[in-house]
Recover the amino acids of this structure.
């Protein structure tokens, strides 16, 4: 979705307003870096970024479903 509509990055920045969390600052930096940085994280098969993906602002925007978010959390933390 980000590749097709880079304006989603602006909406994601807005979704982060007033938020705090382990990865909020990381996402702010990724969003500022642009679509390629965000797409690189979102499409990475690495388990090392699963927790980061699970805290993506796109979930707060309803673009990542709850089932997908839970699967990312499970993979990241073995829960």
């Amino acid at each position: 979705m980000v590749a097709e509509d880079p304006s989603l990055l602006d909406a994601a920045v807005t979704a982060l307003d007033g938020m705090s969390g382990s990865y909020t600052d990381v996402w702010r930096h990724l969003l500022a870096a642009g679509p390629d940085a965000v797409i690189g994280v979102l499409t990475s098969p690495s388990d090392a970024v699963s927790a980061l993906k699970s805290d993506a602002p796109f979930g707060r925007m309803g673009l990542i479903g709850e089932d997908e978010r839970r699967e990312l959390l499970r993979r990241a933390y073995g829960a």
